Amino acid sequence: MADYLSMTKPQLLEEQAGLQQQYDAFAQKGLKLDMSRGKPSPEQLDFSLGLLEMTDHIDDTGVDARNYGELEGLPETRRYFASLLGAKPEETFVAGNSSLNFMYNMVDLGWRKGFVQGEKPWKDQERIKFLCPSPGYDRHFRVTEVFGFELLIVPMTPDGPDMDIVEDLVQDEAVKGIWCIPVYSNPDGYVYSDETVRRLAKMDTAAGDFRIFWDNAYFAHHFTKDHKTCLNILDESRKAGHEDRPLMFCSTSKMTFAGAGACAMAASVANIKLASDFLFSTTICYDKINQLRHVRYFAREGGLEAHMQRHAAVIAPKFKTVIKTLHAELDHHGKIARWTEPVGGYFLSLFTLDGCARRVVELCKQAGVVLTGAGAAYPYGKDPSDNHIRIAPTYPPLDELELAAQLLCICTRMASVEKLLEIA
Amino acid sequence: MADYLSMTKPQLLEEQAGLQQQYDAFAQKGLKLDMSRGKPSPEQLDFSLGLLEMTDHIDDTGVDARNYGELEGLPETRRYFASLLGAKPEETFVAGNSSLNFMYNMVDLGWRKGFVQGEKPWKDQERIKFLCPSPGYDRHFRVTEVFGFELLIVPMTPDGPDMDIVEDLVQDEAVKGIWCIPVYSNPDGYVYSDETVRRLAKMDTAAGDFRIFWDNAYFAHHFTKDHKTCLNILDESRKAGHEDRPLMFCSTSKMTFAGAGACAMAASVANIKLASDFLFSTTICYDKINQLRHVRYFAREGGLEAHMQRHAAVIAPKFKTVIKTLHAELDHHGKIARWTEPVGGYFLSLFTLDGCARRVVELCKQAGVVLTGAGAAYPYGKDPSDNHIRIAPTYPPLDELELAAQLLCICTRMASVEKLLEIA
User: Fold this and answer.
1) What pTM was estimated for this model as a whole?
2) What is the ipTM of this complex?
3) Is B353 exposed, middle or buried (0-12, 13-18, 19+ CB in 10 A)?
4) Exposure winner among A3, A144, B56, B406, fewest CB in 10 A?
């Protein structure tokens, strides 16, 4: 085992031949694995089967969840999600099955009607820009792409987005918002530091209607007893005199059933009022039975934390397997790759040599393992360094996952050797 | 009992005094009734309690409804809703809990991306106009209002919108669509004639991307064995070479639980493809468990028709009571009012003398009965003749409904006398 970066051309060619043999052996296994999306495994889904037995339909204030009304969510469920998000019930809007959809709606609100402190709706402004901490969540970026906004990359650090760059960029009045996943970020699994949260809350922005889209999708997704958390952006923003700045989201999609849960937003009362007025034009109400089903089910099962521990027992070993394999297969070939080692969430990042990620994904695919497309975690799907791969370990069974991780390492080494041969 | 329209001023004053006494007696009853929205009664909601016991989560093609995916709906449920809408499964998109939201999305699609045969997205066109058969559904009109479209009134007839006027207005390239409720229309309860459907399908429109928003919300809501139906607009449009023109919607909100059902759209494959591509940017997927829950429940309960007969047994007597009261209290005072007598749906229309509707609603409210706001059934909430009142008889218990209908008649007579005194 030698450092690829100090190999001679003949040595690289010899290594390449060996890797090709290993790769061919894998290809013959006929693997068919999809690791492209952050999907819960069937085993995880089974933890919530009891949810389907819940017949509750009257909330603790007497509202019948079976009928129209309560656009902002069932009162009982607003109280519950408020407690999860660290907000007051009147600051909390409980909605439908997709938090991404709620985020789309809030961008649509800014676009069509405008936020308070905004001079005019975004549609009436020449150019709108959005900050995209990258690597990040492709579906966030796509929302703002479909509105035609200019998407600006902000590098991610283990403490969150690079705040020096953020503070610089928000001096532009056209910059209207930022996408954030503050806890166990997608895809790195980083947790925003206190300083990052405080700087986001305090910073001066040229746009009065600058909004932080705070997608706290994984706040309860701990693998260990070391529960990472972050400061409450609504509290911090209020202290700094910017209480209308953050829109905090969460969802039960990765707690119970993916795509069949409930989501919520917490924000200032002024923002909740704006959201209500706008959403009244787009829908009658959300599925309140499913809202109540979730809240009562978590209570019945001993609380959300106990429920999430069951998930952790399945997910943590999968992350461990991937990380162990990465170490075993990639530690001894020089600096051809690095990766994140999250203690929660749904993803981790693998960084290859520059210009190799697309090739790694292609090689894996040809051998039967589909990864998230290279570049997907960057605005417009374009990774300027072509070095990032998102790994989603939750769905495959442990034994298949181990195989897939081994293949990924072989492909990473192959692509590295190819790249080094180019410049040798 | 005399014809108000031929009364002298002293006679009118005497009548007014008598009506005031009756009104005061009602006001003292302390009624508190909300007839403002088309809400199912608790008794109706109980018909679907079994829905909450359904634990099915794998569809008949093997798809696990508990996980992400199948944006266009679970295959089994696409087949089911296709059969309801008279379309093929690949022409059918099964979505979330709100068909109004799906319609908003389709207008948003036209606005942001544009339809096939459209030269450019609606947002890039100077002025967009939409046809609003009136009286109609306020929430339809509001969707197009929030987009800033100009809303044009088209008079409703018992056969549907006045087609001479429609055919004239669509000669304007800015006219991009029409709102239709073809069966048991909201609020009149009219059913579109074959000729109306054919003319809508066939007519030449200046705009290639003219779209018919065909909200078939009440196609299964018959009161009697005389099941009114209408021609399939997708079939008729295809015959006429306009298969991309109609977007057909339905919803289970008024079949099971209001706001907690599933909705669907049927349209040409090209439109379904456009919808998929666009909605991919706005959400991950819809609640497929609730889709399956509904399809399997209807099957378990002996089919949708049997289920809807249970509703009819509760709703039909309520309509009968209102109509009987209107005859008893308003038949003998000359032409001061007319009303529709639907055999299905959720609403009926009461037409007063011109300039009286707002006053009737106000009088009712002061005596404890809240009706839909006068004018609500017209674009921008403005009834040019101020003569229309929407009656929603489903929610109140029968005995309270009878009292409310009596009060409504007294208020109608009071407002008529006031109006006649003005011009006497």
Assistant:
1) 0.97
2) 0.96
3) buried
4) A3
